[in-house]
Design a protein that fits this description.
The structure is a single chain. The chain is mostly helical and 88 residues long. It has two domains: 48 residues, Arc Repressor Mutant, subunit A; 39 residues. It is 78% helix and 0% strand. The longest helix has 38 residues. The radius of gyration is 22 Å and the shape is rod-shaped. The N and C termini lie far apart (49 Å).
């Protein structure tokens, strides 16, 4: 996936600017984005604060770490069961 030129906090700032009543066309021209990009951001980030985005990112990282830990333990458990079954 292509990395955005804008951080999530910048995206939220652009959307807040749009909520104040600035026309979308003017916003897009000012920030160098397309109308489609603006509306995609709006559907993804509408009503979200920067602190919530940071917490969400932390939770996603923790979730990924826990999934890796589970996969490692499941693999280890499977290997131990295979060894025990061969000895019987």
């Amino acid at each position: 996936m292509k990395k955005s030129r804008f951080t999530e906090s910048q995206i939220v700032a652009v959307l807040k600017e749009g909520e104040t009543g600035v026309p979308v066309a003017e916003l897009c021209r000012k920030h160098g984005i397309s109308n489609a990009t603006y509306y995609q951001w709006k559907s993804k980030y509408s009503g979200v604060q920067v602190s919530e985005l940071q917490r969400l990112r932390e939770l996603e990282a923790e979730n990924a770490k826990l999934k890796r830990m589970y996969a490692d333990l499941a693999l280890e458990n499977s290997a131990i069961k295979d060894v025990l079954n061969r000895k019987s």
